Amino acid sequence: xxxxxxxxxxxxxxxxxxxxxxxxxxxxxxxxxxxxxxxxxxxxxxxxxxxxxxxxxxxxxxxxxxxxxxxxxxxxxxxxxxxxxxxxxxxxxxxxxxxxxxxxxxxxxxxxxxxxxxxxxx
Length: 122
Fold this sequence. Notes:
Elements: E1 2-6, E2 9-12, E3 17-24, E4 32-38, E5 45-50, E6 57-59, E7 67-72, E8 77-82, E9 91-98, E10 111-112, E11 116-121
Parallel strand pairs: 2-11
Antiparallel strand pairs: 1-3, 3-8, 4-5, 4-9, 5-6, 7-8, 9-10, 9-11
């Protein structure tokens, strides 16, 4: 089981990035996928999650209205479109897979990728 996040980089405040998470090794459509982030010196925090079929999504209040999570089950891919970025969004972003629906707890996600760094300059 592997999750590979990509798409991070340096962007100015107000800009946009799209992160991708490629999943291999298991039946992709059987898993809930979440995005989390961890800033230097801070705990890992939930960003967004998407249900198995993509019909249900959930977001942290801090990104609601700016970020959009989506998935393509045919390609085993999950995306995180991030708009109106601000310096507080600077973090390593990680995608994770789990079997429990309706949860934003990182402990409920069993499989993790290595993360991609997003840096937002002011």
